[in-house]
Amino acid sequence: MIPKELYAKFDLDRGVIEGGTFASRHLSDLNGNFADQVAYDEMLSQGNPLLYTVSSLEPAHGDGQLHYGLGVLMPGKVGDEYFLTKGHLHTWRPAAEVYIGLRGSGCMLLQDESTGDSRLVPLHSQSIVYVPGFTAHRTINTGTEPLIYIGVYPAQAGHDYAPIAKQNFRMIVVERNGTPTLVER
Ligand code: PAN
Ligand code: ZN
Question: Three-class SS of residue 164?
Answer without folding.
Answer: helix
